[in-house]
Specification:
Elements lengths: L1 H20 L4 E2 L4 E2 L5 E2 L4 E4 L15 E10 L12 E2 L3 E4 L3 E9 L4 E6 L12 E6 L2 E8 L5 E6 L11 E6 L36 H44 L4 H31 L11
Parallel strand pairs: 1-11, 5-8, 7-13
Antiparallel strand pairs: 2-3, 3-4, 4-10, 5-6, 8-11, 9-10, 9-12, 12-13
Length: 298
C-alpha cells in the first residue's frame, strides 16, 4: 500500500515539474505600440520597423500582397551538418514594392530573431525590420519592400546564432547576387577542415625527416642572411654617427639642453615627413589606378 502510494506521489511530482518548466506556446497579438513601428510585450516578443501602409520612394503602388510563415529552431539545422540553429527556409523571392507579412514562429525554449538590414532609413528606423520571440511562440509583422533589385540578409542576431546556421536571404526582383555562407544555398566562406586530426582525410602527410632537414637548412640560411643584414645596418649607423657627430657638436655649441632636445625632435619630424611623402609618392606611381567607386543604394 505504502509502496503504491509513494510511486503515485513520485509520478505526480515528475508530471508537475514538467508542467512548470515547459513554457506555453504564446501567440503574441497584444503588444504595446511604442511608435515608429516598434511594438513590444512583457512576454518576450518584439517587432521593429512594422510598416503596413507607407510606400517606399519609387513605389507608385503595392505590387503584390504576400504572407509567409517562418519557423526557427534547433531541429531545422539537422539537415546542415555542423550547424546548431536554422530557419525552416533559407531563401525567399518577391517582386519590388511587395507588401509582405511575416509570421515568425519560434519552436525552441530560447530567444530567436528574424532580422533584415539595408532597408531605407527614412522609412525603417535603423534601416531594419525585426521580429523576435523568447521561447515557444509566434509574432507577426509587415513591411513593404523598396523598388530596387537587391538581395537582403535575414538572420538571428542573438550571439552566435547566425554563425551556427540561423541565416537566409531574400531576393527582391532580380536580386543582387547570392550571399555567402547561406546554408543549403552557397558555400561557407571558411570551410571546416579536420584533415590534420583525421589521417585518412589528409592528402598531404607530415613531411619526412629528410624534408624536415632541408627545411631546417633553409631556415638557418635565412637566419644567417638576416644576421648579416642587421650587422651591415649597424656598421652604417656607426659610420654615420662618426661623420655627423662633429657637425652636430658645432651646431649645438652654445645651446641649452632644452634647445638641443627641441632641435633633435624637429629634425626627426622632418625626416619622418620626408620618408612618408617618399613612400606615398612611390605607391601612387606604382599603382596609378583611379579608385573604384562603390555602388550606392538608391
Amino acid at each position: 500500500m505504502n509502496k503504491n502510494l509513494s510511486m503515485t506521489v513520485l509520478a505526480l511530482l515528475i508530471s508537475l515539474s514538467a508542467t512548470v518548466h515547459a513554457k506555453e506556446f504564446i501567440n503574441h497579438t497584444n503588444m504595446m505600440n511604442h511608435g515608429d513601428g516598434h511594438m513590444m510585450d512583457m512576454d518576450g516578443a518584439m517587432v521593429m520597423g512594422n510598416n503596413p501602409d507607407t510606400l517606399p520612394g519609387g513605389c507608385d503602388k503595392i505590387a503584390a500582397t504576400k504572407e509567409i510563415t517562418v519557423h526557427a529552431g534547433h531541429k531545422y539545422a539537422k539537415k546542415f551538418p555542423g550547424r546548431i540553429f536554422a530557419f525552416d527556409q533559407q531563401e525567399w523571392k518577391f517582386d519590388p514594392c511587395t507588401k509582405l507579412t511575416v509570421h515568425f514562429i519560434n519552436d525552441d525554449e530560447i530567444r530567436h530573431q528574424w532580422m533584415m538590414h539595408g532597408l531605407p532609413k527614412y522609412l525603417y528606423p535603423k534601416g531594419m525590420f525585426h521580429l523576435e520571440v523568447t521561447g515557444p511562440g509566434e509574432v507577426s509583422g509587415t513591411l513593404i519592400f523598396p523598388p530596387n533589385d537587391k538581395t537582403y540578409l535575414v538572420h538571428c542576431d542573438i550571439s552566435q546564432h547566425m554563425e551556427k546556421g540561423m541565416k537566409a536571404q531574400i531576393k527582391i526582383g532580380e536580386g543582387s547576387g547570392n550571399l555567402p555562407s547561406i546554408p543549403g544555398i552557397t558555400a561557407n566562406v571558411i570551410q571546416d577542415d579536420y584533415s590534420d586530426s583525421i589521417p585518412e582525410l589528409n592528402p598531404n602527410p607530415a613531411p619526412s625527416s629528410s624534408t624536415t632537414s632541408a627545411q631546417n637548412g633553409a631556415d638557418n640560411a635565412n637566419g644567417q642572411a638576416n644576421d648579416a643584414l642587421i650587422s651591415g645596418l649597424t656598421v652604417i649607423g656607426i659610420v654615420l654617427g662618426l661623420v655627423l657627430a662633429p657637425l652636430l657638436a658645432r651646431k649645438f655649441k652654445g645651446m641649452s639642453a632644452g634647445e638641443i632636445i627641441a632641435y633633435i625632435f624637429e629634425l626627426i619630424s622632418q625626416l619622418l615627413g620626408f620618408v612618408f611623402n617618399l613612400i606615398a609618392g612611390l605607391i601612387k606611381k606604382v599603382t596609378g589606378k583611379k579608385a573604384i567607386e562603390l555602388p550606392q543604394d538608391k
